[in-house]
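Re-run requested by the PI after the first attempt was lost when the workstation crashed. Everything re-entered from the original request form. Ligand of interest: guanosine-5'-triphosphate.
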Amino acid sequence: MKNDNAEHHIQTPDSILNALAGVLPVILESASLEQVIDAFTHALGASLGWVALIEQEAQSLNVLVSGCCPCQEQDVYQMLADQRLQACGWNTVVWESGVGKHFFSRSESNLCALESAVLGKLRHQNGDVAGYFFLAFPHQSYSQKVLRNLAAIISGAIKEYLIKHSVNSLLLNETQKIVSQYTTLFSNAPILINSFSADNRCILWNGECQRLFGWSRDELNRFPDPLALFYPDLTVRERVRASVTTVPGDKMQEWYPIDKNGRVLTTLWSNILLPDHSILNIGVDITARKREEQRLARKAITDELTQCLNRAGILAQLNEILLRNSHLVIQNGMSVVMFDLDYFKSINDRWGHSVGDIALSFFGRELQAHPLPGMVTGRLGGEEFLAIFPAADSQQAWRFIEQFRQRLANSQVVPGYHDLRISFSAGILSLRSGEVMPASEVLKQVDEALYGAKRNGRGMSVIVGGSPQWIAKTSIN
Ligand SMILES: Nc1nc2c(ncn2[C@@H]2O[C@H](COP(=O)(O)OP(=O)(O)OP(=O)(O)O)[C@@H](O)[C@H]2O)c(=O)[nH]1
């Protein structure tokens, strides 16, 4: 910035003091060092002023020039390189007259015309040289004493400015660093972070929320209640809203929001109270993990060959129905059927184990093909299966079995193996309404019924429980 007020000459020590008194308070508040040197140059009527700060890291000088006769940066280097100045351990050098001619060539007439000047060193707290400043006046009227005092005041003021400025810029740097770290964390963290105001506005919506749910914050705020997009059911929505409290629980809660494409997600949420009393919701998407857990859980109770439940799975179901749903069993009764393929060993022996596998798999699939309501089936092991028919009496179970038997008789069990037929024996246990029995007893009785069917010639069903015991024979050939 140039000092246009070249006419502004201050001649007396009093007027210098007045000028300094006016300028000193604004020095500390100046936004830049350039403004500081401008203020001094202008207030004291200097034609040339410069400050050169030593840049520690770059090992160079940062030169700021002001005044109505500004010199080149190169001139500043030249002045500082002058032998006389370097040689003495000076802090302040003053010229009462002829300073322009001393430093500048005749071609630079304005600069050559400069008369009095002061060149001062700026020092760090520890005494190291921080830089230099220079003020030159177009007149001779400043005495050496005045110029030295001027130098002391100016260097003190600049030093104070630099200390404040460096503390401020350090704080600013630190703050910017922290803000940038948190911004990166907020945008890129693989966790869901959001916040809603009391009037249902979305205040915070991080990158992971946008990625997972497909909505941007602006899009959400176009809706009167953005939460309704994720939880269309009002009751659920109100429960979600009520869960966002200022006192978070120690466990994360599982919620099932829907995304922009209508996909139901599984998420875990908690929230934290920020110092400004706003609440930040923190969540994780566990949809994939949950699906995998469910897949593994299903796998753990599924028989790989037949895709029925395996032994553990079907026995768990039996226990579940008899214990947890005992009121339904008491109310509606139930039937349990144990199946065992007849002479299966001879199928293996004649056609091989892998053909036997295909036959077993066919049996399992066909058993489940036309289920009665609520029916569950499982493979107990080998060529033995169990089916549970909630709320079915022995007649319904028997009819189901005989239709199944008929389908098997009419099916080609293994493609290409026309002679291969399978038959089975079945034991049926029916519990009448009001009747209860532990699972172990159910299995014992149904096994006895099956044994009865085997003993009586196979290819038939034996019913126990419900009505008096009777044998239903069905010919399949
Ligand atoms: N292919 C195949 N065979 C199996 C499997 N599990 C058990 N088996 C066979 O099933 C046959 C069962 O033989 P047994 O217990 O003697 O019964 P069965 O020959 O069916 O005779 P009954 O039950 O008395 O009518 C054995 O040969 C087993 O090896 C399996 O997963 N795959």
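Saved to the shared folder this time. Residues 144-188 form the longest helix (45 residues).
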